[in-house]
Specification:
This protein is of the alpha+beta class. It has two domains: about 110 residues, Jelly Rolls, CATH 2.60.120; about 100 residues, Winged helix-like DNA-binding domain superfamily/Winged helix DNA-binding domain (Arc Repressor Mutant, subunit A, Orthogonal Bundle). Helix 1 packs antiparallel against helix 2 and helix 3 crosses helix 4. The relative contact order is 0.13.
């Protein structure tokens, strides 16, 4: 698959990667910065599906393995439409500064990924929405990855994710839901504590209510 490119006077040639498309960085492919969008970082496997290992957000460096001898590049997958730009390694001082930035970035990505993979599904989806809107102070339109992409990232079924998002819409934490975007009320969402029933089907939730009612009568 070919990727659209455009010449940017500040950082050289930008690359545009459509949502849902894998973008492999070849060994020695240089260093890139994600200017917009969100990308999934995968660890390539010889057999079976790639292992998900992180989430890259705007401002993050990509291909940081290029700073290390014999580094193996991660497989990148665009969760939303992305714009990448190459980063020049001018001299040793610039490389050292980028290496320090990459170290700090790696620590943040590890914390982010732990939030996306632990705890109830509602908490994981909340964490993802806050990450995708990081830096925003007012309700802003957030480009959403496809349900299957979110499911792979947070390790959950896409039906469960759909139920949680629907519950958040009913609670007005999310607004103006469209096929590929939603407005996120970060302030309200940040203080919200999801309940297990948010990820349950209506039938399962109703069954739980009935069981509690019967238990109280006994």
């Amino acid at each position: 698959m070919s990727f659209a490119t455009d010449l940017d006077s500040s950082d050289g040639q930008a690359v545009y990667v459509p949502a849902g498309v894998a973008y492999p960085l070849p060994p020695g492919g240089g260093l890139w910065r994600l200017r917009s969008g969100a990308m999934r970082l995968d660890c390539p496997q010889q057999e079976g599906e790639n292992l998900v290992k992180g989430l890259a957000l705007p401002g993050d460096l990509l291909g940081i393995e290029a700073l290390c001898p014999n580094g193996l590049p991660a497989q990148l997958r665009a969760l939303t439409a992305c714009r990448l730009q190459p980063v020049a390694l001018a001299d040793d001082a610039a490389s050292s500064a980028l290496l320090l930035q990459a170290l700090s970035q790696s620590q943040r990505q590890q914390r982010d990924f732990a939030q996306l993979r632990t705890g109830p599904v509602g908490e994981r989806i909340k964490a993802l929405l806050l990450m995708l809107t990081r830096g925003e102070t007012t309700p802003e339109a957030c480009t959403l990855p496809a349900l299957r992409e979110m499911a792979a990232l947070i390790d959950s079924a896409h039906e469960t994710i759909s139920r949680v998002i629907s519950s958040m819409l009913r609670l007005d934490l999310l607004q103006d839901r469209r096929p590929t975007s939603v407005r996120v009320n970060r302030q309200a969402l940040h203080g919200f504590r999801p309940t297990p029933s948010m990820s349950s089907s209506n039938a399962a939730a109703l069954l739980g209510v009935r069981k509690r009612a019967v238990h109280e009568l006994l």
